[in-house]
Amino acid sequence: MKEKVAIVGFGVCGRVAALMLAKHYDVHVFECDDRFTKASAGYVAAAMLAPLAESVHASTHVVDLGTESLDLWPKLLAQLETEVFFQRAGTLVVAHAQDQGAMAHFRQHLKPLENIEHKPRNIDHAALVQLEPQLSVRFTHALHLPNEGQLDNLGFYQHSYATLKKRGAHFHFDQQICPHKLDNGLFNTVVDCRGLGAKHDIKLRGVRGEVARVIAPEVHLTRPVRLMHPRYPIYIAPKPHNRFVIGATEIESDDLRPTSVRSALELLSAAYSVHSGFAEAHIEALQVGLRPATLDHEPYISKQGNVISINGLYRHGFMIAPALVKQALAHMNLSM
Ligand SMILES: Cc1cc2nc3c(=O)[nH]c(=O)nc-3n(C[C@H](O)[C@H](O)[C@H](O)COP(=O)(O)OP(=O)(O)OC[C@H]3O[C@@H](n4cnc5c(N)ncnc54)[C@H](O)[C@@H]3O)c2cc1C
Questions:
Q1: Rounded distance, CA 115 to CA 133, Å?
Q2: What pLDDT sits at residue 184?
Q3: Which of 3, 44, 125, 207 is the most buried (most CB within 10 A)?
Q4: Rg (Cα) of the chain, in Å, rounded?
């Protein structure tokens, strides 16, 4: 008989942990929401896998986890019964003429990564025409961060559930669980992936983020674009079927009220300044999520008895979850 493992929380970490464990263990998932987990931060995320771009603010530890995870994602996604959009065509960074200072600042603060494939490349106008023709209308040059990736978070959410269900994982939705109070005799290991739901046990705060999801048939961008701006830097992440995620605000607050007019104006006007085709786009959703953050923005793994807690993924949940969860599960000597 397989050992029983409980996973509490079915956001990004919970799904990654369940996929890593489903082959060798009898997996039970407990989630306080329904199976769509629309309140999880991962449901709202743009799911960019951008360790180099994030290195401007993130620690070397986080950047290393992100670099390792870029290679782990394809293996995880290969387990799913339905293909989920994943690409590694890099990120393009651009700035309008008046914001070249912000671009120079960003370039200067990128951490040097050892792998030569990750080195940033200056792109002149001729190269931009080749790489992303529609961007070359408004921008004369760009910075290419070549090895970065992104995936379709909604596809991952949908198909991770379907695959795990088919493989016999047990789901217990609408169950608000305290991992330390689960019956010890029933589960050999409990993996605590509650995100901000663990804030009474772990020193965490919510960092509000807002994104706009739009359908823009006139916009043809094939890779994520980051617009440098002194007040509100934004990114535009293309997803399948002419969809784009425009994000994201970062506000020190755990307020989950709908997107403010100010944020919507900033996100959408910045997107329009990158490509006029966004004027004809349709807004599918304005979404809000809370990033679970520790005080120092470092991810958190802690073991107490048979409970392992993984948390504090902040703005890097998709970027680092595979490597971080793998580390945590190895800590418990679990086979993957
Ligand atoms: C606007 C925005 C944009 C983002 N963009 C990116 C990006 O481009 N790239 C990137 O890498 N990251 C991004 N992130 C960050 C990423 O979404 C988070 O880091 C990640 O979702 C955290 O994963 P998690 O599993 O810890 O928490 P969550 O994804 O929040 O999942 C936690 C789950 O636990 C459940 N839960 C909570 N308490 C309990 C309980 N007591 N019992 C049972 N279940 C419980 C919740 O309902 C939820 O489903 C973004 C976040 C936001 C908000």
A1: 28
A2: 67
A3: 44
A4: 20
Q: Which tens digits make up the pLDDT trace of 14-47?
A: 999 999 999 999 999 999 999 999 999 999 999 9
Structurally, at CATH architecture level, domain 4-331 sits in: 3-Layer(bba) Sandwich (3.50)
Amino acid at 298: E
CA distances to 42, 62, 70, 211, 308 from 318, in Å: 8, 12, 10, 16, 19
In this structure, the residues whose C-beta lies within 6 A of any atom of ligand 1 are 8-14, 30-33, 37, 39-42, 44-48, 176-177, 193-195, 197, 209, 211, 247-248, 289, 291-292, 311, 313-319
pTM: 0.97
- Domain-wise residue ranges, the chain: 4-331
Q: Give me the residues paired with residue 226 across strands.
A: 93, 235
Identify which of 284, 314, 102 has the alpha carbon closest to the alpha carbon of residue 211: 284
